[in-house]
Amino acid sequence: xxxxxxLQDLTIQVRRDILRMVHKVNSGHPxxxxxxxxxxxxxxxxxxxxxxxxxxxxxxxxxxFLSNGHISPVFxxxxxxxxxxxxxxxxxFRLIDSRLQGHPTTxxxxxxxxxxxxxxxxxxSVALGAAEAKKLNNDKHLVYSLHxxxxxxxxxxxxxxxxxxxxxxxxxxxxxxxxxxxIDGSTDDVLPMGSVxxxxxxxxxxxxxxxxxxxxxxxLEGMAKxxxxxxxxxxxxxxxxxxxGNGVDFMMHTxxxxxxxxxxxxxxxxxAQNPETLGDY
Amino acid sequence: xxxxxxxxxxxxxxxxxxxxxxxGKTNENVVALCADLIGSLKMDEFKANHPERFxxxxxxxxxxxxxxxxxxxxxxxxxxxxxxxxxxxxxxxQIRQSVAYSDKxxxxxxxxxxxxxxxxxxxxxxLEDIGLMKMLxxxxxxxxxxxxxxxxATIAIAEHHGPVYLRFGRPKVANFTPEDQTFEIGxxxxxxEGNDVTIVATGHLVWEALEAAKTLNENGxxxxxxxxxxxxxxxxxxxxxxxxxTKCIVTAxxxxxxxxxxxxxxxxxxxxxxxxxxxxxxxxxxxxxGTPAQLMEKYGxxxxxxxxxxxxxxxxx
Lengths: 281, 317
Prior knowledge:
The complex is a heterodimer.
Chain A: H1 4-25, H2 30-35, H3 37-47, E1 63-66, H4 72-81, H5 123-136, E2 143-148, H6 155-166, E3 172-178, E4 181-182, E5 185-186, H7 187-190, H8 196-202, E6 206-210, H9 216-228, E7 236-241, H10 264-272
Parallel strand pairs in A: 1-2, 2-3, 3-7, 6-7
Antiparallel strand pairs in A: 4-5
Chain B: E1 10-11, H1 12-26, E2 30-34, H2 38-41, H3 44-49, E3 54-56, H4 61-71, E4 77-83, H5 84-87, H6 92-101, E5 107-111, H7 129-134, E6 140-143, H8 147-157, E7 164-167, E8 172-173, E9 189-190, E10 197-201, H9 205-218, E11 223-227, E12 230-232, H10 236-246, E13 249-256, H11 261-272, E14 277-282, H12 292-298, H13 303-315
Parallel strand pairs in B: 2-3, 2-4, 4-5, 5-7, 6-7, 10-11, 10-13, 13-14
Antiparallel strand pairs in B: 1-8, 6-12, 9-11
């Protein structure tokens, strides 16, 4: 198991990957990707029990589903750096004939991706279905999922959230990226959602808070707690408070970089703030 | 002319229920999901036999489609059950992204399709679902004609890897195809041989086409009736071979002429072998309340309508 410093080094490299990927094609979503870099690194390098290689059915291992597919840069970077496909392939992000589509998909057969996402609000249902299949298969491994906070405005989420508690789907840990931002502004301005915690609790979920969602130790501690709460008859939700654009000062605390790529100068500043650790692709 | 005997009216949805019951016994990977319509979809027996493989999702069709997509990851073969309207239009984006684009092995089983749902009226009578589903890349679209064929199709689609839309209906209609048939996806079934006109029908209109062929035969017109249970992939060869002989065609379906079987047939003919075609279908309209027979008469979807369309198309030869 890598230590915190190794995870931190990987996080910095992942940030560089994200910036370089979106810069090259002048498109993509750096803000949410950067905000979740520590979470993805912790999940794939420490928290999840994963088999070598990739098998779609994922029997005998933990599974992860990304519902807010637009943060594909961080997903692709961490998948590549966790061995699912060559790191060099990050060069092909959003290019024609690439397996690294703008939003993740199984369609081109990219290892590590189990369902297409991008049209928001569908990930809860799919992750819950996979969790139900694990129960039928008597597979004790867990299903993890990640969702944006703005994404919770989609109604299908709440169908799934209601289903999960009603059916005691207690082998799932669904994380909400609470960065408080969406395309048109802060979530409080666009469509105030009130207490997300109170909503999940009212729907019968066990809720774990990770207040420092960009701190690897806090993530590991919070996710370990979440894991200890599985198997007790209730689904588990993690509220991960993150800072959009984390690690690149001018991208932080704003929705401005939700779906905008840095120019050459901005890229240079962002990379200077995150010196190369494991080597660029 | 070859004739067919109705062994007794039965609803196609009960054929689905019987097929699902059979699958429950023979294929342990088959799971079933229903959105609060177990009785309507005839899923009671599967539920009773295999409670651990049956999922009541409540009135939440979008979640049902997503759950089904997720269950395929782990090797399950999910069959979802609700009305055709709620199986397609209501959940189009869920099917598009989580099932079709993701190539998930989900079987979307849709009852109460078309006008023959009857008295509930247009809110529930979808006449656009074939079009919606056939436009999705990789989706197989099947519309069965009677109880026996629906049962056989239900069993057959479990063996086919990939998303399938299986469309059937509510009313009791003639049951005339063989009980022991083998259902071959994408393979048209020629029911009668004829030289003057090809009648290609799907779903409830297949029996009507046979009735029409009888009337036409009495008037000296020899009709070749083809049952197209699979609209996608379409058995183009069967259509082209028949039209090469008859030089004209009538298509018949319980669906809007826009986006339905008729348009798929027209595309094939236009590309390979242009020929006059008449469409027995709804004319870009919503339905309304009424008995199934009244509605099929009013909207021109019965044997009489097929006879009239044939008379028209023969004049255009």
